[in-house]
Amino acid sequence: xxxxxxxxxxxxxxxxxxxxxxxxxxxxxxxxxxxxxxxxxxxxxxxxxxxxxxxxxxxxxxxxxxxxxxxxxxxxxxxxxxxxxxxxxxxxxxxxxxxxxxxxxxxxxxxxxxxxxxxxxxxxxxxxxxxxxxxxxxxxxxxxxxxxxxxxxxxxxxx
Length: 159
Hints:
Blueprint lengths: L2 H14 L16 E2 L2 E12 L4 E13 L2 E9 L2 H18 L2 E6 L2 E6 L6 E7 L2 E7 L5 H14 L6
Helix pairs in contact: 1-3
């Protein structure tokens, strides 16, 4: 897929995502399936020990078997809170080895270059920040697109 088509797909996925009501269950915030991945758990805490990152948030784990997995979190955030989370993740990456960060106003992507590799995408949409990450070598952009598309297709995400 070329850059323009990927960007169009991403823009469409972002525009289509609508958060469930705050009164909905944790499961309602995360699609059961994302591509080949199946949701394996939900809770209210994000913990990435190798980045010294721990926060209260809606959180889900996904697995495709054979050790392939990713995680997703959804935080209610202001602009300042988004920046605080970004700085925490960036600090943990800086402490853990070589990495490539890309920082924009409402997004932060990273690819850790030291082993074991870790990649992720933090994106602010309205009043929420969505964070997806993995250590499987999945592209952070494709992972975010697939997550948003699946979440938008879930019945609980329809306003």
